[in-house]
Amino acid sequence: MRLARELAVVVSLLVVVGALVRTPVGRVVLPAVSVAVLAALAWVLSKPAAYPRTAVGVRTRVVESAADGAESGASPSCVECGDAATTRRRYVREGVVLGVPLVLFDDGENAYCEDCLRSLSRG
User: Which residues cross the membrane (predicted)?
Assistant: First the structure.
């Protein structure tokens, strides 16, 4: 499904470019579009990659850190069982192009104790 959609987009772009090449407007539009595409590509590649450089589409990543409770003054409780949490997991769902996140769709943070974190990682 995804490959068919990407193929349809590429074919559509080639049809538009082919139509522009045959017109006098294409002599102005195509070089301008080419420069804009190269500038956008250079900008994306200059950003640090959070994912592999081949990643394109909507991706999710999880960052774990210790749950020390320094921000709120109290130790957070586990979202699964209510015990004192030892680990915070921050997740982000992003739109990615060439490994660089461009659009943030969703994010959040959950706190877990050791037992619940182990059970989550098992399955």
Answer: 28-45
